[in-house]
Amino acid sequence: MKPILALTGLTILVCGLVPAQERVVVPARNTTHPRRVYVKTLNHSITVKTYAGPDVIVEVGAAESRRNRRPPADAAGMKRLDVPRGLEITEEENVIHINPSVLVSGPITISVPVDTSLNLQTHNGSLNVDGVHGEIVAHAFNGHIELTNVSGTVVADAFNGPIHVSMDRVDQGKPLSFSTFNSSIDVTLPADVKATAKFKTDRGDIYSDFEVTMSTGSPVLQPDNSGQGKYRVRFDRGMQGTINGGGVEMNFHTFNGSIFIRKKK
Fold first, then answer.
1. Tens of pLDDT along 182-205?
2. pTM here?
3. Rounded to whole angstroms, what are the CA distances from 124 to 3, 41, 119?
């Protein structure tokens, strides 16, 4: 299907009707500021890698074939209308949205310039990012999150999978967050990073290569909902510590797993 030019941006519909690998190039129409790429999918793993070019390149398996499907008896004598069920990509002002159909097979691979910000969401898949310098938001429900040699800021959230992150540089102006429920968190940070970190794990331990000055959680007053003006004192089970004197806020939270903070060599 030919690209469709919209008045405010670019819309590309890739309707895969035969099994094949689809490769879509989203041209760089404005290189004065970095790209932002959003991907939301249900059953696909996503891999993002960097390259030297200015464009964003998306590679996926094509939508499954419907051309040879036998029509039902109720459709005898009727003509089938094939509607697009493949990959939809929209671009406006350097913001790219990638929406794959459930019929698209295999993982999604995206090649981007180094200075790109990402917002990746998948339910039944894993997320892998390598070499990106920007703001990274990664959500995976039933899969792992692995971010390698990234810089900037990271918000990584998983449920049934581990989180592994290796950072070359940390943006001191924006907080970082790493959370999962049923697994571990393993984060490698630059040796000179300055951070104020909050840690919480209900069924695991905390390990660190850094010298961390720890403090226990503060008491929290909560209304008891009795209507008598009484309050309940609760102590947060989390802990807080400073790395290299304190700095950017970092949050680490897991329920069934341990937390590992490593120093980049």
1. 999 999 999 999 999 999 998 999
2. 0.81
3. 29, 9, 16
